[in-house]
Amino acid sequence: MLAGSCAVASSALAQESQASEREDSIEIISISRKRPESLQDVPIAVSALSARDIETAGIERPGDFISLVPNVNIVDTANVGDTQVNIRGIVSTRDAESTFAYVVDGVLMTNPNGFNEELLDIAQIEILKGPQGALYGRNAVAGAILVTTTLPSEEFEGKVKVGTGNAGIQRINGIMSGALNDSMRGRLTASYNSMDGHYTNVLTGQDDVVDFLEDTTIKGRLMWDVSDQLTLDIRAGMSKVEGGAINFNAVFALPSFVNAFNQPAYNADVNDHDFIFAFNVPGENKQDSTEFSVKADWDLDGYDITGVLAYNDLEEYLLSDGTSASFYGYELTPQCQTDRATLNNTPAALGGANRSDLFGDFFAPFGVFPPGVEFTGVYGPYTPTSCDGFQYQERSQRDFSGELRVTSDDDDADIRWIAGVYFAEIERDVVVAYGADQGQGFLRQAYVPPTGPNPTDLLFDDTFDTSVISAFGQIEYDVSDKMELAVALRYDNEERTVSNNVPNVSSSGLNINTIGPINPAFNANPNGIPDRSRSFSHFQPKVTLSYELTDNVNSYASYGVGFRSGGFNSIGTQATLDFWFNSSGTGTPGDAVDAKLLVTDDYAKEVTTNIEFGLKSKLMDGKVRLNGAIFKTTVEDNQFFEFFAGPFGLLRAVTTIDELAIQGFELDFTAEITDTFKVFGGVGLLDSEIKENRNRPLSVGNKAPQSPETTYTLGFSYEQPVSEDYWLTTRVDYQYTGETFFHTLQGEQTPTIWDFFGTLGGGVPPGPHPQNFDNAARDAFYTLNARIALEAETWTLAIYGKNITDEQYLQEVIPAPEFGGSFLHPSARAEYGVEFTYNF
C-alpha cells in the first residue's frame, strides 16, 4: 500500500509540473475542521457530494450516498431507525451509541436512530473517515458525516417535485424560501413519501405490509441577522414514519442435523435462501420525531463566537411476530392448536394441510404438524401461526444539548485556533417484550398482564440517563509557507445511569419455557432491581502534519484517538443467558450447552487509535482530482452487537471484542474528460483481524464483522445541451461490495441449545450439535443505478432506476450461534420511476 501511495505521489508530481493553474468548475468548500476550507486542502480523508451530485445521483436517504463511498457501507433492516454504518471496519452497534458523529448544519445529533431520515433540500454532504473525536467528540471513533442544508434565499423562490414508480412509490415535496423582512430569511420544506414495498405476505396476499414505508416530514429554517455582527440560525422539524419491521427469515447452520435427518437444508448457504414472508402479527414500526435548534454566530474583532442549543424527541415502537415456536413455548395454547389445524405443511397423505407456500417443503427445514402431534415439529420463527408469540420493542429518546466555541478569524494568520465546550442530557427508554399471541389483537405497550389480549412473558424495560460534558480545542500553525501543524485535544466525561421499569410479577404461564419472574433478574433481587451507574471519560488527541508538495499536490500525516462510551445492557440479560447457555452445575439447561459466554449487564468503553498518511492532488490543469490514503487502526473493546435466540425468545446484547486491528487503503478520483463528460470512482481495501476476544476466543484471527475486504465504485455523468433551452443529463453509478461476514465466528464450531434438547429425547438426537457459520457469509454483490433527466430553465423531467439489474443479495445476516442458525433480511429489488420538478 505504501509503495502504491508513493507511486501515485510521484506520478502526481510529474503531471503537476506540466500543468498550469486552473480553477475547478465546482470548488467544494469543506467545513470538516469547523471553518471553511478547500476540500483539496483539508488534511482529512473526506468524500464530499455537492448539491448537483445529490440531484443527479437521485440521493434521497443515507443509504443512497453511503453506497458511493469506498470503505463505507450501511445495513438497513429491522426498522426505519435501525441502520448500521461501517466506516473503515468500525461498525455502528445496535442498542449502543453510534460510531460516527452526525452533524446537520453545525448541530450534533445525539440519537443514532435519527440518522436514517429523508434527505431534503441538501446543499452538501461530507463523509469524514478515521477518528474525529478531537473536534466532534463522543462516538466519533470511525468518522463523521456532515450534512448542510440549503440556506434561505434573499429572493422568493420555490420548488415542487412529484414522482411515482414501481413497488407503489409515490413522492411529493415542496420548498418555499425568501426574505420575510430586511433582516430575516426563511425556508420551509415539506415532503410525503410512500412505498408499498418489494415483498408480499403470502398468508394474506398483501403486497403493502412487509417492507412498506410512509414518511411525512416538515422542516423549517430561519436566518435572522440581529445585527451586523450577530446572526441566528433557527431550525425546526417534525416527521412521522410508518413502516414494516423485523422482516427476517431464519436458517440453520447445524451440520449434525444434516446427517441425522438426511436434509441439506439444515446447513444451506444463506445466499441461496428463498424468502417466505407469512407472518400473522402485523410488522409495525412507528416513529414520531421532533427537533429544534438555535445556532448563534457572533462576528467579533479577531474571532467568532458560536453557540448552539438543540432539543430532539423521538418516540418509536416496533411490533412483530416472535420466535418461540421453535422451542414449543406456546405449543399447548388454544390459539396455537387452532392455527395448526389448517396452517401446517404436513403432506395431505399424512393428514396435513400441505401448506408448503407458508413454510416451505416438509422438514426442509421446517416441519409443522397438525394438532395431536405435539413437541415434535420444527416450526421456525415469524410464522403464520400464533405458536411463535409476538415481540414488542420501544426505542425512544429525548435529549438536550449545547455547544459554545470560539474560532479565530483566518485573515491569513500563521496561527488559527478553536476552543469550546459541549454538554448533553439524554434520556433513552428501551423496551424488549415477548409474549403470547392469542388471536385477540395486541396492546402496544411494554407490559400486558395475564388478563390482557397478548400477555407478556419476558420483559426488559429500562430508562437510560446520560450526562455529557466536554471541552475541546485545536491550534493550526503554519510552520512555513508549505507546512502546517495542527494539534487538537478533547476531554469527554459521561455519567450514565440506568433504572429498571419492569414490575416484579410472574409471567402469564402460557409459555412453558418462561415460568417465574417476568425478568430473571428478580431471582437475585426479590426486593427490586437497583439502579446502576457508571462514569466513562477519555482524552481524545489528534496531531496532523500537512505539507504542500506543489501548488496542486498536498500530503498529510495524522495520529488520532476516538472514544465511545461504555454502557449497560438491559438488566436480566446476563441472568437469562447464564440459565440457558452457561454451565452452573445446578441442573439448568446451560449445563448441557456450556457455551462459556462472558456477556454481562454492562460493557466497557471503546477506544480507537489511528495513524494515517494521505495525498490530495489536482492534475492535468485541474481536470483530474486524485486522492489517496493509507491507515492503520487499533480498536480496544470494540462494541459488538450479539443476537441470542432460545426458548426464552430473543435477546439483544452488546459485547466487546477486546482488540481489533484494521489497516487499509483508499483511492478516489474525478476526471473531467470534456466540459460535459465526467468520470469518477474509488476503491477501498481493508485488512482486519480480531486479535483478542475473551467472549468468543475461537474468533481470534478472523475478520472484523461486517467489513468487506474490497469495495469500489465507478460512474460517469454526461450533461449535454439538446437545444438552446434544454439540457440532457445522464448519470450512472456502479458499486461493488466484497464478501461479508456479520459475526466474529466465521466457521468455528461452538455449542448450541440443541445440545440441551438432545438430552431430553424426542425428535432431537443426542448431541453434540455445534453450529458452523461456513455458509453464513454474504456473497459479494454489485448494484447499478442510473438517472436521465431533461432539464429546462424552470422544470426537470427525470427517469431513474436503482439496482436496475435486479441484483438479489442479502441486506443482513444476523448469526445467533447458540440458536444454531442465522436470521436473514433481503435487500430491495429493482426500483424505477419518473420524477417531475417545477421551479418558481
Would you identify the regions where 5 or more consecutive residues have pLDDT less than 50?
A: 1-25
Which CATH-level-2 architecture of the largest domain? Beta Barrel
Using the CA coordinates, give the radius of gyration: 28 Å
Tell me the major beta sheet.
22 strands, antiparallel, barrel
Helical proportion, percent range: under 10%
Mean pLDDT: 93
What is the tally of beta strands?
A: 37
SSE-based structural type: mainly beta
Helix segment count? 10
For the record, the CATH class of the largest domain is: Mainly Beta
User: Could you name the CATH topology of the largest domain?
Assistant: Maltoporin, Chain A
Number of domains: 2
Strand content: over 45%
Please identify which CATH superfamily of the largest domain we are dealing with.
Answer: TonB-dependent receptor, beta-barrel domain
Domain TonB-dependent receptor-like beta-barrel: 287-804
Subcellular location: Cell outer membrane
Domain TonB-dependent receptor plug: 39-144
Pfam families: Plug, TonB_dep_Rec_b-barrel
